[in-house]
Amino acid sequence: MGSIATTLEFLLDLPLYKTEAPYQVIPSPDYPNINPAHLSNIKLHSRDVLIRDLREEGENFSLDVAGFEILHDEPKNLTFDKLPSLEAYGKETEALLSKHFGAVYVKCWNQTLRRSGGYDSKTVDINDPMLVQTLPRGVHDSTFESSPPVIESYLSEDDKSRYLKPGYRIRIVNTWRPLNDKVEDRPLAMCDYRSVNGNALVATDRIFPHQRQQNYLVQHNKEQRFYYLSNQTPSELTLMVMFDTQANGNARYCPHASFHNPLAPQTAARRRSIETRSTVITEAK
Q1: Amino acid 35: pLDDT
Q2: What pLDDT digit, counting tens, does each position of 2-23 carry?
Q3: What pTM, to 2 d.p., does this model score?
Q4: Rounded distance between C-alpha atoms, residue 207 and residue 126, angstroms
Q5: Domain-by-domain residue ranges, the chain?
Q6: What letter does residue 194 receive in the DSSP assignment?
Q7: How far apart are CA 155 and CA 278, in angstroms?
Q8: Whole-angstrom Cα distance, residue 190 to residue 175?
Q9: Which residues contact 66 (CB under 8 A, 6 or more apart)?
């Protein structure tokens, strides 16, 4: 398919964000009287970008260097009709990451199904693990500040004593796999870590009734270099680093977003995908 000239959504660089963090309140019956105008102060805008096709690049992109890599993996099952099938995929992901990284500990603590387009129902349960979610807007990533508490929340007390000390490298690794035979509608674009200015990452609050989550929304600059894998299949698994305790010139995050593909045929199926988030612990080198 080749490189694609298209647009991505970025956070506007507003003076407001110098004094007030960007935020989004997730609609809930717990907020019956909230003014819709107060649900978010996030302002996005579209910018023209060139998204390069990894199939045409001579360089081998790796997690440590670029923040992402493509791993060939034949999945055992991609039919997710009941919770046990989703949980089994999480276990399969743990085994894959353990082998790939030579890890001493892997915990897959999130599996998310997604589909392009809107929700089929006007009401959704965001706590339903089987909910097929829509695609996030804007180039985004996890924040450094929000990651350590998440990691600790899934470690037992024994594991905390064993691993939360010098001698171990702790990462959060995201896997992304299409569920279509090949992706034409809304492929995934990854931003090369080497092209990201840290000042472009803006911490953004996502406010739920009983918790506050945080991620980065990204502001645009001309140095950013985006990549995708054309006609990606389910056996071509994307790995992205979300957090890394090692700071030795290696990639420590990977801004990403889906994008409109102007080359996709009108008959292209709505993109379906599954992503996971896992804590991966290896011995430090």
Answers
A1: 67
A2: 899 999 999 999 999 999 999 9
A3: 0.93
A4: 13
A5: 4-283
A6: G
A7: 12
A8: 12
A9: 190, 192, 193, 194, 227, 251, 254
